[in-house]
Known about the structure:
By secondary structure, the protein is α+β, with helices and mostly antiparallel strands. The protein has a domain at 66-212: protein yfey like fold (Sandwich). The chain is built from four helices and twelve strands, in the order ααββββαββββαββββ. Strand 9 and strand 10 (177-182) form a beta hairpin. The radius of gyration is 36 Å and the shape is globular. The relative contact order is 0.11.
Amino acid sequence: MNRPLHCLLLCLLLAACQRTPEAVAPAQDEAAARAQAAEPGDDQPSEDVPPATAPPGTLPPRLQQGGQALARWDGYGDVRFGMNPDQVRQAWGGQLDGGPEDSIANDACYYLSPKWAREDHSFGFMIEGGKLVRYDSDNPKELAPGGGRVGMSGDDIQRLYAGHVEVQPHKYVEGGHYLRVTQDGETGALVFETDAQGRVTTWRVGLPPAVDYVERCL
């Protein structure tokens, strides 16, 4: 065989042996990816995940009992409308400050409040005629019967208590309202007060006519 031709053939053979098919690598990578996806992998974190924290607005311990809100249509926790002051204190199970001497109305009407609510008047039991007739709350973390709370809009209250809300203009706040809620089969009523922006600022539950006193015991 001619030497130049022999050398040319040898070079061609060497070049063919060294060539890497360009389509092989992508195909192999794709197959490997499919195989990895098909295998039951461990998608859990290596460390224990802590349980979800309670969302904002969760009731503090003093406002909970067995995971349920304490506010009721007929009272609060173990406290019931119609109890005398001694029975209220016993059912409450803690210190309640206040009495006739702290009220302009004297023994006709006054409030009993836990120590934590005395300064800001955020919660209190109204005693009238020697009986519990109402309680008030300004605490944004506490649920009223049915789920209403301070900070909600008037529209929220209307949707939450649909068909049970009577709206009246606020006596002292221009643009504010009283949203009076009644529940079938319940003697007590629930009243929300809203500000000029339509947000609930306070609410109360009680027996008529005390629940509708705008000035509380004044």
